[in-house]
Amino acid sequence: MQKMLSAAVFALTAFSAGFATAAPAAYKDPLDARTLSTISSHFSKLMELANKHDIQGLHAMFWQSPSALLVAKSAIPLEGNWAGFWGNNAIDQKLHDIAASGPVVLTPDLFRLKVVGLTSDIAESYAPMNITVSYAGQDGTPKPFLMIITWKKVAKDWKVASEIILPVPPTPASKG
Known about the structure:
The protein is built from four helices and seven strands. The protein is an alpha+beta fold. It has a single domain (33-166), classed as Nuclear Transport Factor 2, Chain: A (Roll), CATH 3.10.450. The protein is globular and about 45 Å long. Mean pLDDT is 85; it is low at 1-21.
């Protein structure tokens, strides 16, 4: 019995030590620095096209698929305050409606733009920004948003598969 207990303790100790020495390797992004830089440049181009109200240019930046997604402010109460617009026709129409509402200015904080590879053909970017827009009851005052984009490699280019624009709620007033 003593030998079995000693053998079990030894095996458990060796097994545990193996886990301690087999720490996971440091994370390595599946995309190289050049590719991540290319996607960052695409992000900047997307912002430039949006600020110019270049709907055709924006259309070309999106993945041509019924699964492409834009999440944005809705002007239709039935859709809710914010809604998902699926497919290129719906995205083009939403972007057209927003652009037609008056000035739209997207001002991303490029120092805080983060692009990461999720797989060899999918990446995600995150950027805080201010958006000035008068669409759907917004008053044209710059407000903080987060823009989260999923990028998909299509052939040899990177396309927007989903663009999620989230309003940042105001900081609650402190008590006291």
